[in-house]
Amino acid sequence: MFNPNLKPGEIVNNEDICRIFQCSPQGGMRRSKRTNSLVIVSDHTKAIYEDRWVNNILHYTGMGLTGNQSLSHAQNRTVKESTENGVEIFLFEVFEPRKYIFQGQVILAGQPYKETQPDIKGNNRDVWVFPLKLKEEETPGPIPEEVFQKKVRLREKQVKTLSDDELYNKILSVPRKSGVRKTITTQYERSQYIVEYVKRRAKGKCQLCGNPAPFFYKDGEPFLEIHHIEWFSKDGEDTLENTVALCPNCHRKMHILDLEPDKKLLKEKVKN
Ligand SMILES: [Zn+2]
Ligand SMILES: [Zn+2]
Question: Whose atoms come closest to the Cα of 269: which ligand?
């Protein structure tokens, strides 16, 4: 039994992985003879692999960047034979470059199966997918909500490069059960006194576009959302000068674009 002395959820860098497991610094599957282990990296920032968790099982795409993958090739074989060969498999996930999140030891949860996925040049080819489950934990560790959203955004961009035919082909092979990931969100507790003051100050109008609130609550209060010009997550303060009331459209816009001219306008508005 090899013990890497890592806790699930612990974030390490590539050098740490090489030092702890005594494996190569490259690749998604890294075999170490010295620790008799296999390090598996599920890199969600890379377009080429479509690893996903379904019902607490990670469907992990094997080795081989171009052409059809082979089950007898290198580490694909190591995983396939891992029920007999005594090699222990440890899983890391990557959502942001250079941050490897340790998930724990994994074992095969079923037979490897074939699937069609594009290779690095965009040509469809056969890949082997390994169903893996965590040995100790029931579910994979949660990841920060913003990290998950970044990954979704990255995927959206990658999918945009597909032709209509490619896109339709993809849809045909989408598993009916969606992947599931638990995320951690941070809630900021803001002063209710400031919230109330800012709403009164806005007089039922969005402070960015100037339009009236899009609808009213049943009790007649105009619906506006509270926004902090400098975000709490970026050290913004819970003050009257940093808080505005916006319509839902403008609120989204601020969170997606956060344009300097808009911020300047809002800062001017709350000054007077
Ligand atoms: Zn607005
Ligand atoms: Zn906001």
Answer: 1
